Amino acid sequence: MAKTICKIFGAVLLLVGIVGFFMHNLLGLHLTMIHNVVHILTGLVALYFGVSGSDSSARTFSQAFGAIYALLGIVGLFQPGIIATVIQFHEAGDTMFMDNIVHLLVGAVFLLVGFIRAPQPAST
């Protein structure tokens, strides 16, 4: 399951990163140049693990990536100025709420698939 999520979310992150260069407020998100570059790079890495990685490496990537995105979402909710500075968005505050929720959701999905193992057949 981790490989599938890496493929899906990798493609979405790559697409959001590319589209973000042309639509800076895509779906209410604040997509700055650095934000788009990060989405493109993380999308490519996720795609790599989804396509070429083993199940184990995709799960490990999902755990690490999920933790980073969840932390990013949590910090953004409580200290939006820090995240706004990192992505070079100059209007921090409540306007970044949706960005933080998306980061939390992406982090939660990756953490979930990173820690769930495929059912093992019963031994006889």
Write the layout of secondary structure elements.
Blueprint: H1 2-20, H2 33-51, H3 55-78, H4 80-86, H5 97-115
Helix pairs in contact: 1-2, 1-5, 3-4, 3-5
Characterization of this structure:
By secondary structure, the chain is mostly helical. The chain has one domain. The chain has helices spanning 2-20, 33-51, 55-78, 80-86, 97-115. The protein is elongated, with a radius of gyration of 16 Å. It starts with a helix and ends in a 9-residue tail after the last helix.
Quick gist of this model?
The protein is mainly alpha-helical and 124 residues long. It has helices at 2-20, 33-51, 55-78, 80-86, 97-115.
Could you list some keywords that capture this structure?
single chain, 124 residues, mainly alpha, 5 helices, 0% strand, elongated
Strand content: under 5%
Question: How many structurally independent domains?
Answer: 1
The helical percent reads over 70%
Tally of contiguous helical segments: 5
How many individual β-strands? 0
**What does the overall shape look like?**
elongated
- State the end-to-end distance: 26 Å
Mean pLDDT: 86
Q: Poorly predicted ranges (pLDDT <50, ≥5 residues)? A: none
Structural class: mainly alpha
* Cα-based radius of gyration, to the nearest Å: 16 Å
Order of helical and strand elements? HHHHH
- What's the main sheet like? none
